[in-house]
Amino acid sequence: MVLEANECDFVFEPQITEEHVETQYGNMHCIMTGTRKANRPVILTFHDIGLNHKSCFETLFNHMDMQEITRQLPVCHVEAPGQHVGAKTLPNAYTYPSMDQLSEALPAVLSHFGIHSVIGLGVGAGAYILARFALNHPDLVDGLVLININPNSEGLMHTVANKITEWTHTLPDQVIAHLFGKHEIQTNHDLIATYRHHISVTMNQSNVSQFFRSYNNRNTLEVERPVPGGNINVRTLKCATLLVVGDNSPAVEVVVDCNAKLNPTNTTLLKMADCGGLPQVDQPAKVIEALKYFIQGMGYMSSASMTRLRSRTTSSSSFLSFDDEKRGRTRHNTDVSMESISNSNVDQIISKSTEVAC
C-alpha cells in the first residue's frame, strides 16, 4: 500500500532575515519571513504601543491556520525605533519621530527589501501608521487590515487627562489601559498579568514612553467618505480595507467612527463578539479566517476555505453582532454564510459595504 503525504503534514519553515534598516527617522528593526514572489504583495505588520512584533503578532502567525497564508505571501514585521527586544535606551540627542514620520520611514524599509507592494496589518498605533502610509503612498499598498485604529487626534480634554495619568499611573498601567478595556482588565487576570510583565520587563521603558508620547500627539487622519455625485477627489483610502475590533475593546467607538469616514465600496468592518483589546491574540483563528477571506477577495488566495465567519451586507445603523442573533433579536439585514461563498463571487461580495460579525 502506498501512502501519499498531504502537504499540510509538513512543517512550514520559511526563510527568516532579521535586520536593522536605516531610515531618515532612525533605525527600524525588521524581520523578513518567506521568499518574495513576482506580482505578489508582502504582508507588512506594525505593532501597537508597548508591544513588538513578537508580543503583538506571534500568537497569530504561529497558529497552524496561518500557514495557508504565509505559504503564499511573505511577511515583513516592522518595529518602531527602540521597541525591539533588547533595545538600548535611545540617545538623548535623538528626537523620536512623529506618527507621520514613522509612516514616511516605511518606503525606505520597502526599498531595502525590494518590496513593491504590501498588504498592511497594523494594530493600534501601527494601524494608524499604516493608514497614513497608504494615504500618502497608495501605489505601494494593495490592502489594509487595521485592528483598533483610532483616526482621531487627542482633543484638549484627552491631552489634559493624559498628563494627569502620566503623573498618577505607572507606564505599564497606562499601556495596559490603552490596549485593553476595563472589563478585560478586571476579569482576564492571567492575560493582563502576562502583558504587564512583558511591558515592565521585556520592553525598554524610556523608549516605550517616547513611542507612546508620539502616538498621543498624532494628527487626525483627514479622510472623508465619498458621496455619490460629490467630489471625486476626496482624501480617502483607495485600497481594500478591513477594520477589526473586539466588542470589549476600548477602541470600539473610534473604529466604528473610522468606518463611517471611509469609502463603503472597499471597506469592511469586523466586530468580534466576546473579544477584548487584542483580537489577534484573543481569537487568532477567527482573525485568520477573516484574513483569508480578505486576501482571497483581492485575488491572491483562490483556494482558501471559509468556514467560521458569517458575513452580513448591512448598513452601519442596522448592524447587530452574532450574539444578538443567538438571543433571538430581530435582524434587519441579510445573512450570507461564508461556507456558501464560492471562489468566483468572493471578490464581488468583498467589494460591497459590509460589516462582519463572528
Question: How would you characterize this protein structure?
Answer:
It comes from Anabas testudineus. It is a single chain. The chain is an alpha/beta fold and 358 residues long. It has 14 helices and eleven strands. The chain has a single domain (16-298), classed as Alpha/Beta hydrolase fold, catalytic domain (Rossmann fold, 3-Layer(aba) Sandwich). 37% of the residues lie in helices and 18% in strands. Strands 1-2-4-3-5-6-7-8-11-9-10 form an eleven-stranded mixed beta sheet, with helices on both faces. Helix 4 links the parallel strand 5 and strand 6. The radius of gyration is 20 Å and the shape is globular.
The overall pLDDT average reads 82
CATH-defined topology: Rossmann fold
User: How much helical structure, as a percent, in the residues?
Assistant: 25-40%
Number of strands: 11
Q: Gap between N and C termini, in Å?
A: 43 Å
Discrete helix count: 14
CATH architectural group: 3-Layer(aba) Sandwich
The SS-based structural class is: alpha/beta
Largest beta-sheet details: 11 strands, mixed
Shape descriptor? globular
CATH level-4 homologous superfamily: Alpha/Beta hydrolase fold, catalytic domain
Please trace the helix and strand order, writing H or E for each element: EEEHHEHEHEHHHHHEHEHHEHEHE
Query: CATH class, please?
Result: Alpha Beta
Low-confidence stretches: 1-10, 310-353
Count of folded domains: 1
- Beta content comes to 15-25%
The whole-angstrom Rg is: 20 Å
- Strands of the widest sheet, in order across it, are 1-2-4-3-5-6-7-8-11-9-10
Main location: cytoplasm
GO biological process, one term: Wnt signaling pathway
Family: Belongs to the NDRG family.
Function: Contributes to the regulation of the Wnt signaling pathway. Down-regulates CTNNB1-mediated transcriptional activation of target genes. May be involved in neuron differentiation.
